[in-house]
Amino acid sequence: MTDITTVTVLGTGVLGSQIAYATAYAGFDVVAYDIDEPALEKARERFAGLVTTYEAEVDGAAGGKAEAGLARINVTSDLAAAVADADLVIEAVPESLEIKRATWTAVGAAAPERTIFATNSSTLLPSDFMEATGRPDRFLALHFANRIWVQNTAEVMGTPKTDPAVYATVVDFAREIGMVPIEVKKERPGYVLNSLLVPLLNAASALWVDGVADVETIDKTWRIATGAPLGPFQIFDVIGMVTPYNIARTSDDPTQQKFAEILKRDFIDAGKLGAASGEGFYSYGA
């Protein structure tokens, strides 16, 4: 068992809300932070939805356990207050180096000396912004997969400055909240999961953008040939459009830049954000 009892999650988007709820469901006290009241209202809706999902899909969650997890979450838009008593801060803010550096500068100034800092960044290396915390020895990456209650990996990746004891504590914490810790031995963009997944998604988007095959054909080919339950565009819908857009628009590849333009124009601007919104590349109903 670790000494961690209070966890703060920064950012309550699709994955941030899942991290916060999974941690609370495991019995920890959680503070969920986001920038303003409209964002927090969406977070409350996501948490309520996760209660329903856990009751339907997680053994033992029905009969009050899922609701008890919800009761352990407090929400706030006051960053200093959010981290004031945190044993562990997990950051899941937008995938922007500038935003992450600014966030961690503020957190480092407000959090107790004992606090461990973890980023859920999926594409940026922790060493790119560890110095912003003022305590790089207590900073590392803790990366979760979407649908955390089913795809329960937690990739732990330190930097050359991460204290080994901090790393070990975070591995133990991941296990305590029901994750399977994936110990990444050295820094690598994409960790293990996205190093495998991103080339698939890039290849699929290039096939589509270049007019080689349509979405349904690409997905069908992958499912039939590999036995995978989802094709790459179904995976895009699970991830949501915002993260793939942010990654594609910063790519040096003209095809990926074109993909980003299409995602922005035809999907994000039209409110088709993926499965969570009811429509992305496919329609999901209510």
Describe this protein's structure.
This protein has helices at 14-25, 37-57, 65-71, 79-83, 97-110, 164-176, 193-209, 215-226, 232-239, 242-249, 254-268; strands spanning 6-10, 29-33, 73-76, 88-91, 116-119, 139-144, 153-157, 180-184. The chain starts with 5 loop residues before the first strand and ends in an 18-residue tail after the last helix. By secondary structure, the chain is α/β, with parallel strands linked by helices. The chain is built from 11 helices and 8 strands. The protein has an 8-stranded mixed sheet with strand order 3-2-1-4-5-6-7-8. Helix 6 (164-176) links the parallel strand 7 (153-157) and strand 8 (180-184). The protein folds into 2 domains: 6-184, NAD(P)-binding Rossmann-like Domain (Rossmann fold, 3-Layer(aba) Sandwich); 193-277, N-(1-d-carboxylethyl)-l-norvaline Dehydrogenase, domain 2 (Orthogonal Bundle). It is 46% helix and 13% strand. The model has no long low-confidence stretch (mean pLDDT 96).
